[in-house]
Write a structure and sequence with these properties.
The protein is an alpha/beta fold and about 400 residues long. The chain has two domains: about 5-180 and about 365-390, Glycogen Phosphorylase B (Rossmann fold); about 185-360, Rossmann fold. It has helices at about 15-25, 70-75, 75-85, 105-110, 130-145, 155-160, 220-225, 245-255, 275-280, 300-305, 335-345, 355-360, 365-375, 380-390; strands spanning about 5-10, 30-35, 45-50, 55-65, 95-100, 115-120, 150, 205-210, 230-235, 260-265, 280-285, 310-315, 330. The strands form two sheets. The protein has a seven-stranded mixed sheet. Strands 10-9-8-11-12-13 form a six-stranded parallel sheet, with helices on both faces. Helix 1 crosses helix 13, helix 7 (about 220-225) crosses helix 8 and helix 9 (about 275-280) crosses helix 10 (about 300-305).
Length: about 400
């Protein structure tokens, strides 16, 4: 009988990318909840074949707060989730459920097959939840039930061992990554032609990609922009999320309204980000040190790694503190400006382009999925392995 990997759930971009890579190697369904206060009274589920990324999706209604103490016995959402999963596989006991949040713990405890906990956020930190104690309780139950636990950072792994009492032998760290298709056929020593919506920006260009929200240090960015009138700045990503800190919010607003050599492109599909990353003279990762960002894995770092261009990063993500010399760490606007001036003097060549290219071959979602399968003792079919190997061969363009 065929086994199926069920990923619950794939709302986060990085989880969906990992699930898509997994689907190249084993049969995989990505479960996409539609959470509402009336979710219990809604029953319609439907399938969708996503093209970007390629993934079989299953949409389903879900009761808001379904995992809170006392609510699951009332709504029985955990049992309803298991019934749905069983309807999409002919071998429940031989298949795998991948839980991506502690809220799925009641379902995990009812799942008859292999159980993987894929942890991509510091869910118990106050910056993420108003009930850290409740999250820790769920994490303890999840880690007790899980056969394997894959946190995406060392800090999350340490939390799981320390607070969730997860046995260390269950844990394998699985950082975020980039698509294998983004790996270039050779190192990139100069930026490529810019996408149409920024093609008129004068060079050199410093670029920031990703969610342009409160975990960015807008004060440092504003200061650096003010002091580099010779440099264009491009911000690629959504700006809808609020920034609570008044000064940080003011600095973001000033930059968004600046115009001229500063441009915000708005939201772009994940698949489009590589075109911007390759077009930048220098990439900037200006994280603030705040949770849950500090404890996570920086997806945008791996996008820039594959693009080979020089990278400047603040110390706002613990993972990045261990990535030199692939990037240059800075602590202030003064250091950022000085590093930008030094790069300009060298023609934006830092001598690490080939190293970033070589390293990026191992930092793909396809490699992460293969590791997940290998560690958990699973295997792909011969045809699926051949398809996976084809994906890993870098192609031109």
């Amino acid at each position: 009988m065929n086994k199926t990997f069920h990923v619950c759930d794939v709302r986060a971009v990085w989880v969906r990318e990992c699930a898509s890579a997994l689907s190249r190697q084993v049969a995989t369904v990505g479960w996409l909840p539609h959470i509402s206060t009336l979710g219990y009274f809604r029953h319609k589920s439907w399938s969708e074949d996503s093209a970007d990324p390629v993934l079989s999706l299953r949409h389903f209604p879900l009761q808001r707060g379904f995992a809170r103490t006392g609510l699951d016995p009332l709504f029985q959402e955990s049992s309803r989730i298991i019934r749905r999963l069983n309807e999409r596989t002919d071998n429940g006991a031989g298949s795998c459920m991948i839980c991506t949040a502690p809220a799925y713990t009641p379902s995990a405890e009812k799942w008859p097959g292999l159980l993987i906990y894929y942890v991509t956020d510091a869910f118990a930190y106050p910056g993420y939840t108003k009930d850290p104690t409740g999250v820790i309780r769920l994490d303890r139950r999840m880690c007790n039930r899980a056969d394997f636990v894959f946190p995406n950072s060392r800090r999350i792994a340490d939390y799981l061992i320390r607070d969730a009492h997860c046995p260390e032998e269950k844990i394998a760290i699985l950082p975020n990554a980039t698509r294998a298709a983004n790996i270039l056929p050779a190192p990139l020593f100069k930026p490529v032609e810019a996408p149409a919506d920024i093609s008129d920006m004068p060079r050199p260009i410093a670029g920031v990609i990703g969610n342009l929200a409160a975990n960015m240090d807008w004060e440092i960015l504003h200061n650096a922009v003010e002091r580099t009138p010779w440099l264009s700045w491009v911000f690629v990503g959504p700006t809808e999320m609020p920034v609570q800190d008044e000064n940080q919010r003011r600095c973001r607003t000033l930059l968004m309204n600046r115009g001229g050599r500063v441009r915000f492109t708005g939201f772009k599909l994940y698949s489009q980000l590589c075109s911007y990353a390759r077009a930048f003279d220098v990439a900037v990762l200006p994280y603030r040190r705040c949770e849950p960002t500090y404890s996570g894995s920086a997806t945008r770092f791996y996008e820039h790694l594959a693009a080979c261009r020089p990278i400047l990063a603040t110390r706002g993500v613990e993972e990045l503190l261990h990535k030199e010399p692939l990037l240059c760490l800075i602590d202030s606007a003064n250091e950022m400006v000085r590093a930008l001036e030094e790069l300009a003097a060298s023609g934006f060549r830092d001598g690490r382009e080939a190293l970033r290219w070589e390293t990026s071959h191992q930092e793909t979602w396809e490699a992460r999925a293969a590791t997940m399968l290998r560690v958990s003792g699973q295997s792909a079919t011969g045809s699926q392995l051949r398809a996976f190997e084809d994906v890993l061969v870098p192609s031109a363009g």
